[in-house]
Design a protein that fits this description.
By secondary structure, the protein is an alpha+beta fold. Strands 1-2-9-4-7 form a five-stranded antiparallel sheet. A four-stranded antiparallel sheet has the order 3-8-5-6, covered by helices on one side. Helix 5 packs across helix 6, helix 5 crosses helix 8 and helix 6 crosses helix 7.
């Protein structure tokens, strides 16, 4: 981790984060109180069961959020990208953090102290509404994942996961909508799908043989999105 300086006014993700709802005065308060850090791929930003001291806003990069079971095995809950904020649910609920945030790319993240964030929530109705909307969205995603694990086959879940990763990790630089622009170990993909790594490797090979996907190094390109949607039973 390396401390850096990042001005909120010039932040690339300001338009899509809660900062877009801040007044000029509120933005100055946040900018003066926050601290920003650069994290290398593989480093963790916060840990499960720790007490939240503030919230984290992603300015650059990508993060996976994981929880551990009694045996110490990790389960990927979700991913976060630029403009998203983390730790707010536990902070608002006054509970320990329920997940560990680990960088899957080099990441720049800003930390906003608890007292500053809670004061913004209390005084700014737009920020309050934005956070409530985000909470509801996350709950909806969690409900869909539970239903998928309970009702879909592994093949269907893998197709669904590839479409989800495609949507989440599009290549913004080249505007390539078909390339999953992040390198995830096959173990992580298996973790999301909820199956063994060997099964994911076999099914990915089948999808490639069927010309549904292609491999570009360690990255995956979607070749036939409509076919994957049919397999996953997704809405088109």
């Amino acid at each position: 981790m390396q401390k850096i300086y990042l001005d909120c006014k010039n932040c690339d993700v300001k338009a899509v984060s809660f900062l877009s709802y801040c007044t000029d005065e509120e933005a100055e308060i946040v900018s003066a109180a926050k601290s920003c850090s650069h994290y290398n791929k593989g480093q963790s930003i916060f840990y499960e069961d720790n007490i939240p001291l503030g919230i984290y806003c992603l300015s650059k990069g990508a993060i996976k959020l994981t929880r551990s079971n009694k045996d110490g095995k990790e389960q990927i809950i979700r991913f976060a990208r630029e403009g998203e904020f983390l730790g707010y649910r536990a902070l608002i609920a006054d509970e320990p953090l329920v997940a560990t945030a680990t960088c899957i790319e080099d990441t720049v993240c800003c930390f906003v102290p608890k007292n500053v964030f809670l004061e913004l929530l209390e005084k700014n109705a737009q920020i309050n509404k934005h956070m409530l909307k985000s909470l509801c969205h996350d709950l909806g995603i969690a409900d869909e994942r539970i239903q998928s694990l309970a009702q879909k086959s592994v093949r269907e879940r893998l197709a669904e996961t590839l479409l989800f990763l495609q949507k989440t990790f599009q290549d913004d630089k080249t505007q390539d909508e078909n390339l999953i622009a992040v390198t995830l170990p096959r173990e992580d993909i298996a973790n999301i799908v909820g199956t063994a790594t060997e099964t994911v490797i076999r099914l990915l090979s089948e999808f490639k043989s069927d010309k549904l996907i292609d491999m570009e190094g360690k990255k995956i390109r979607i070749l036939n999105q409509s076919a994957l949607e049919r397999i996953s039973h997704a809405s088109v």
